[in-house]
Queue: 4 jobs
Job 1
Amino acid sequence: MSTLVQAGSVPVTHFKEGAVLDVREIPSGERPSLFILHDGGEEDMVSIFADVLGQEWASTASVQEAQAGPSSTIYGMSSAAVGSQLDGWDRSRLLINTHRVDGGHEWNEALTDRCDYEYLYTRAPFYRRDVARFLSIVLGQISPHRDLTKKARTTLISTTFPDVHAALPNLDILSVGADAIEIRVDLLEEPMPNGSVSQVPSLKYVGEQVMTLRQRTELPIIYTTRCTRENGRFPMDDPGLFYKYLARAIQWGCEYIDVELWLPEEIRRKLAENKGCSKIISAFHDFSGSFKWTAPETQTLFQRGAAYGDIVKMYALVTSMQENYELEYFRSTIQTKYPHPPFSGLNMGPMGQLSRTMNKIFTPITHPLLPLIAAPGQLSAAEINAALHSMGQMARQDIYGIGSFRSTSQAMFFEKCFNELSLPHSFMFAVRAPKASIEHILRRPNFGGAYINPPLAVSASAAYLPSLSNAAQAIGQIDTVLVRSGGSSSSLFGDNTRWKGIRATLTRDFVPSAYSGRAALLLANSEADASASIFALKNLGIGPIYTIGFKSHGPLSTDVEPVRSVEDVKRLEQPFVIISALPAEKSLLVVPLLKHYRVDKASGHGIVGKRSAGKVFVDLASGTRKVDPLAMATAAGWTAYGIADVSAWTTVETIRLLVGQNVCYDFVRLASGRGLF
Ligand SMILES: O=C1C[C@@](O)(C(=O)O)C[C@@H](O)[C@@H]1O
């Protein structure tokens, strides 16, 4: 049995060695049951889905056979063969239509209507990570909403492009500081054969636009059909049109759909009942200029939105400063009375800009690179941060990088982010001799948090850093120090982000449940070098874990066994993951193992026969070396990642923790240069 670990925090005194173990972040180890329809000639999509899920698969020409087959086997069938067979469909599996948009296949809308979900994709290029994201969302194995509700402030970048292709070159920069990205479906302009644009873009066009956006961003997508009365372009004469477009967004796995409050209750209820893992933003905009936050009906509007909304958004166009004060009063009343759902309230127009800085839930932001602002008074993330600072809502702090050498790429990246987002903070670098205490740095007057690289041993810092996350405690290492303020006092908190970087890397091309109950092999010189990896693997439900180069004794040692001889390697179960935490000069030692457990690529995509072989290799070594094991791993059929991937994901998490800002992985990779990790 594998041991699962939770990542929440408990005071050190509550932590017993060998204890921990409750599950929060990982899905149950249950294998999802899927039935996949594919276009003619696209059957290998079934094997790709199965590989991403770490499950077996089979092709069939009979719906009945799929119904009767083992539930954990993924069944695939050509959509051309379906005919009337779905008439007796018993819904025992999730039915997913897959459609290739660049293959000359007709899109069969009627078939999509009969499916639970639809996955749209291109082959040139093909994005496997998009398959992993789609499946993780629709199967509920990741929950961006749950993660965002833990953040003190969230924003969304509201794009206004008539065609999302125009956004792609700048997407990474546009999204800095945004927690989600809104696609304004009503603003999309589908070119018509006669040279005009359609008033309402077709679902086919919208689907391709959503697909294109999702292929290129890791941000959750908010799918919005804004009506004409609320500053949008979707006509209001047929509410059924909204249902049709929004229901499709759920099928496409959009993380959020924006459902306007004026829509008939029947429609809002039906969407809420069928929302799957998507979340609903209940939206209300008043452009009349006569809206009153103080009116008793305004609370009723909130309650109506809350009935079917996971977030309630109420925005009004105002002309006086007084209305910002009234909104703040309304906000505090609502938040006291209704802790759920979160309330996003703001005033539009130049006079309402103050409220755009006060609102903490999904504040819409713009960016100078967007063609137009989505609503009057919208501000950029940088403008909001600057305003917060000047109003005393965001104090200037010194954020530290603490390490044995000045890691220029990471330090420069922090400085770049602070500038790009107009954060008032200063970035300082402090050199730390190996094993030296860092207490004097943490006690500096303006200390606002730090990353520590290489990490600090928990045992050495317990006296001055007693409050730790579970992860830091179990791993035995602190790589991030946060300042938590509570009223007039503040306290220090030690955390570990490295394991999250490893976990995020592992789940880039595979869904979390693919790891559950599978074996892993871990190479390191010492337990300390391997413990963040062990924590990440356990968080994914991996087990057993075999080790080479060290023996595990600490709180994570359950189900972690050393491999002692070549005979052991031969006997060992096929590992699903190999992680090498060996230093660069030793990292070639892993190569014989990669070759020994090589993946037979004969049938493509890491599939051995009908068995998904998975096969993920992560090399945590940094620095130069003569031969790169990543290239060899790839040649032997492994999906391989290096330290740059893990470090970039770790940086995403570190920036989120230290300054509360979301900066995407792709931006970190883009802005930090290559080969510097
Ligand atoms: O609902 C909103 C808010 C908004 O109208 C604004 O005021 O910033 C911008 C829209 O894109 C978004 O859908």
Job 2
Amino acid sequence: MSTVGKVIKCLAAVAWEAGKPLSIEEIEVDPPKAGEVRVQITATGVCHTDAYTLSGKDPEGVFPVVLGHEGGGIVESVGEGVTSVKPGDHVVPLYVPQCKTCKFCLNSKTNLCQKVRVTQGQGVMPDGTKRFRCKGQELYHFMGCSTFSQYTVVLEISICKVNEAAPLDKVCLLGCGIPTGYGAALNTAKVEPGSNCAIFGLGAVGLAVALGCRAAGAKRVIGVDINPAKFEVAKKFGVTEFVNPKDYDKPIQEVLVGLTDGGLDYTFECIGNVNTMRSALEACHKGWGVSVIIGVAGAGEEISTRPFQLVTGRTWKGTAFGGYKSRDSVPQLVDEYLSKKLPIDDFVTHNVSLKEINEAFHLMHSGQSIRAVVHF
Ligand SMILES: NC(=O)c1ccc[n+]([C@@H]2O[C@H](COP(=O)([O-])OP(=O)(O)OC[C@H]3O[C@@H](n4cnc5c(N)ncnc54)[C@H](O)[C@@H]3O)[C@@H](O)[C@H]2O)c1
Ligand SMILES: [Zn+2]
Ligand SMILES: [Zn+2]
């Protein structure tokens, strides 16, 4: 029996309020309106941003909400005017959309499409309404994706069709963490062959940076992390040396400058801590070192350094979603995965069912997982 045009009842992990575990509920998902796509989600990763919003610290956070933004799925039906995907297509929802018409999309220097920024931040579709209900209450959308549900509704500009040969429980991770780090090295820093790089924080994002540095032909890739358990696994991703700030009684930037004859060519902050952001900048080589901020700091926090650090030729940059124009790039990254250039499988350390989704959050908080993938 076709579900097209009908409300679908399915299971979702609902965040009813801040600071509480997710609860598995039967929800109702409306059909897609014009320009929208209803997707059956088959797998999703769990990312720090989901945890951040769930914690209540996100000033934009609204409840009750269906979180999740690292999903993979199959198109169930499309709304009026949708042409780039059709029912049955394998797709990855994208929290950075690509409308291809706004000022940002038309500028090759940025990937930050602004077409639906305001409504996406408010947790609603562009017409101000929502497509989810549970127990008589409407549920908010999240980052334009809401992948913690068996079915979700997203905009056509927030989705891309990917090669069906790729398993969705792996390429779902191309929805956030992997492109973020990989693109930070390749698109934002534009790491050159023979470079010395340092990566602060060896979670999924930092390890993806390591893959990007390796792909670019970096010579030394120094991993900086306070969890020594990360080093063995990081070698597999191309980290060549490991520095634990806890092993030293001087600032870590001084240690790194000493190890590298004056500093790094490229550093990457993948923690979200304003102190390590400063260390990462100051670990850069005078005259040309570039530091890229990827980690997301807490609301209201500020970075600082002495301006002389910049006057003497260091550059501070930042990046979201690795600088990738999302709909153009994610299908290409899927192809890189299929041609064994981009090893996504190594990121999946745990697999859980939807009912165990809170366990995936626990594995992330305790530092045990690189990524735990939730299967529907
Ligand atoms: N800019 C973007 O588009 C974007 C996208 C996704 C995630 N992020 C952010 O990237 C960051 C990393 O995400 P992740 O999923 O890899 O996180 P993660 O928690 O898996 O990894 C962080 C790592 O940093 C280490 N660490 C913590 N404090 C440290 C310190 N003081 N010194 C050295 N190492 C330290 C931890 O041991 C851990 O290995 C987060 O802030 C996340 O919000 C940004
Ligand atoms: Zn994320
Ligand atoms: Zn746009």
Job 3
Amino acid sequence: MMFDWFQAINHGIDGSFLEKVREISKLFFKLPADEKKKYLREENDVEGYGNDMVLSENQTLDWTDRLYLTALPQDQQRLQFWPQNPTNFREILDEYSSKIQLVNEVVLKALARSLNLEEDCFLNQYGTTAKMQARFNYYPPCPWPEKVLGVKPHADGSAITVLLQDKEVEGLQLLKDDQWVGVPIVPDALTINVGDQIEIMSNGIFKSPVHRVFVNSKNERMTLAMFCMPQTEKDIGPVDGLITNERPRLYKNVTFTLDFFFKNYQQGRRPIDACRI
Ligand SMILES: O=C(O)CCC(=O)C(=O)O
Ligand SMILES: [Fe+2]
């Protein structure tokens, strides 16, 4: 199997800028609850500040606070959910998104070349605009760490996810050969994994890894996941060069909307299973 998760260093984003990104996240989560509530997610929406969408009484909630925002394209930003405080929040997130967009392009081209395909074959499925969702995750210390998870097992619905990990506190684990393996902290690295949409586009050659986050009783942890993907109105499917007699088409063409993703995810189903032929 090909790699599905790696740590990128020399990605072109300064350590000092990554610090600024961590800083706006921290300043936001440290605001008084009343102030954060101004950006509260609405009941049936994913964007904004809050926790899981509650879809059933049996659902286990994640031990986390998060702020979920559409970062790109800029004209789809819903600024009512963007913190006014810290005052440079928007400037920093905009700059970070455009830098991550470049990382996304480099990675998708490299993935294509590694399969001897034309380098734009994945990017061509993006349509006219790329989409990017930012998820700021805050995991408070937890008095019963063995009883809950920071994020329950899931795979990402993105094409790729670029994660800025906490500088000091580990928590991310990925399922490899039925074992949970910790993802270490590498200073100034970006942790990159493929999501369901690259699994589909690559006709299953790249696998969108299942991962989860554990919490601990002593330390809080903060991360920022950037979900990079094609514009959501556009359907995607396995690229032509990867459908052969030996390897028939494994996935349908689908329009991978956020709604489709979350309805499955919150009920403990993998959205990608709904895409298989
Ligand atoms: O916080 C982490 O380490 C990972 C978070 C994650 O998997 C996600 O936001 O999809
Ligand atoms: Fe994830």
Job 4
Amino acid sequence: MWILGIIGCTPKSRNDISRIIVIIAHTQPVCKTDQNAALSAHFIFKCYETYSITVHAGLLFLPPAGCAVLFLNQYRPIDAILISFGTYLSVLVSSILMYRISPFHPLAQYPGPLLNKLSKFFMAYIAGSGKQYLYIQKLHERYGDIVRIGPNEVSIRDVSAIHPLMGTNGLPKGPHAVGKYVSPNVNYLVGIPDQREHARRRKPWIRAFSPAALKGYEEITVKRIAQLVNALASKSDDPDLGKWFGYFTFDVTNDLAYGGGPEMMRDGDTDGMLHILDSGFVFSHILAQIPWLSVYVQYMPIISSTINKVKEMDKLRTIKRIKDGSLAHDVFYYLNNEDGVESSPPSLDALICDGNLVILAGADTTSSVLTNLFFCLLTNRDAYDRLQSEVDTHYPPGEDALATKYHADMPFLNAVINETLRLYPAIPNGSQRIAEKGSGGRVVGPYFLPENTSASIHFYSVHRDPRNFSPFTNSFWPDRWLIAAGEDTSRPPDSEKFVHNCAAFIPFSYGPENCVGKNLALQELRMVVCLAMQKLDMRLSEGLNPQSYEEGLLDYFVLRKQPPLPVVINRR
Ligand code: HEM
């Protein structure tokens, strides 16, 4: 172990080296004390894991500093410090790493790559590349339905684990949220780990997305969708659909949350707002992999000043919105308990987070699905024409294509939306949960999750598993939904087995913490498609390579970064 001790020393000359060799020969007692202290620190940290910087500093610095003081009478101060800290830290790190790959680790039975078992830094690197969803899919292909993707984390591709993990009596949200929101005290509904508190905070959201409330939002969505389709129709320069859907969903969610915002469709991203959001998503997706690091990062001046600026802006918008009151019954009306259902109003802090969450949760997800939906249609002309004809049947010229009354009678429209959500779930890596410390662990389907294990169902892999959807598992084939519902006779070739497992379709997650905005999202998707197809004829721009579009899809928690999707548009 004394060899490890000199890792902390950096001898610059032969003299230094010989001096260190002499010292090492006499340092056995120092090293022994440091080794014991490091092993104890590992044990203590394992039992009482915490995000407290004070505790981290205490465990990292106090024991070796104490050992160094003990040996000051035998060595020069600098030697005592270097040897003590070098030994302590290297024994601590080695002990942690060796434990993680040892047969004594509670997750030792689950397979996975060595780098992932050792630490989550490698996963953070993968997350930064935007290809985490493909990486985890490959791991499942190689290792099976459960794979260790971190020292204390697994990813699951098994439908029987969905209900026990995320259903009623499922597990609480995992530590991703701490890293994602750069705070150990998560106050965004979507990351609240305490299930009772989550259920309490979700109540106004449920009222905000009731059928009656959705009816009230139609005025907002109708105005914005008409603006979107007019803007697209007036473009002569092959507009990028992804960019326009991004502007559109940003405007809609700002209307719903704050009664208005930066008017992206009218003015473009003049303040660089979307650029800031982009960088924020990348950054928080990386930090979500290493939650403890985010607790440190938030104190870096450049980070803290950006976070504070954004928080201050959200706070000002929220206060202004409270002061102005509601002009319409928008989402904020319910979140702020303006309907007077709750006995007390929400705290300002909760309201700031939830107002902001309307935009964070509702904008990128919907625009990602819209863009991928048109990508699928434009690269499958037959499906495009069939949908066009269904839209024309219900919404011929002169008929209001934004009226929702025919949506239930449009099986192909719904099949196209489902098939897009199956192939390109907006949140491909799923919703992280944890078997908490002290819980004794939890059985989820055929697997046992020891306590302190995080786990997610990998939506992308479950959706693209031939055991759940066959044939043409990786292709856009909306007919599978019609066949499954008994609405179409275009059966697959006899030789191929038709499999359609609805329980494996979870683009909006599952259970009491699933997407509360699902009905609004689906309604928006249907309305945009109906009006766009009634008014416009679209074709892919010459030269767009569908394969490179797919390869360019990047996931930063949301499958949100898409290569440009330029289209040629003519009015119909
Ligand atoms: C097609 C579009 C959408 C998809 C695919 C989608 C998907 C999801 C998923 C998978 C979750 C679970 C996330 C997690 O557990 O970490 C979620 C949560 C959530 N979504 Fe959506 N979403 C969409 C649109 C929307 C819209 C339009 C809104 C509202 C404006 C919204 C609001 C929320 C909220 C508030 C949560 C947190 C719910 C909770 O924790 O109880 N979503 N969404």
